[in-house]
Amino acid sequence: MREEIAWESFWSEIVEIEAANAVEEISIYSPEIIEPTDEIVFEANGEKYFYDATSFFQGNPFLIEELVETALKDAAGETALDLYCGVGLFTLPLAGKFQNVSGVEGYEKAIDFAKKNVENARLSNVKFFRENVDEFLTENLAKLKNLDFVLLDPPRAGTEREIVENLIKLQPKQISYVSCEPSTLARDLKILTENFYTIESITALDLFPQTHHVETVVRLKIKS
Hints:
By secondary structure, the protein is α/β, with parallel strands linked by helices. The protein has helices spanning 64-72, 91-95, 108-120, 133-139, 161-170, 182-194; strands spanning 18-22, 25-29, 40-44, 47-51, 77-83, 98-105, 126-130, 149-152, 174-179, 197-205, 215-222.
């Protein structure tokens, strides 16, 4: 990237560049780069994911398969909900385990890629909602009944308290919480475990080697 970018074309004193990689493929984006952002594709667990530097995708390609397997494990059933679904990293494998899968994501470009990924996989049991997660849950609280599984993968800031409270109202049988920030994860787990849920497992994955960051996957089930 350092060799190929025409650095003389930048005019700002501080330049911000977004970058994404799919092993050898690289996509970069900056408001100061005139050329269109390259689309790249990554394969994991037999699925293909199209995305670019403008949309979020896990940055460590070497542990993505293990992350997906840890988050989903033996999950199966009729209805699953993928919150903050992005380009569909968890949505596609969920479609092979559940009869009906819904993905919710507020970022428009990510949903465009998610739809492309589902179409490429020829899946007919997936629906996407281009909406903020808190608004979606509030608006559809009465419709979302008998959920078997919820995958929750919020940004580093964690999820809103209203979302956690709505999940408690919905009472899905299982929740898989994927977090890159242990402090906000602990905050949300405290509420969930005080209301109907018990922790089945906690797995730490070193997705950010040589940093203090860690990815954590927590599987919860509703108390019988």
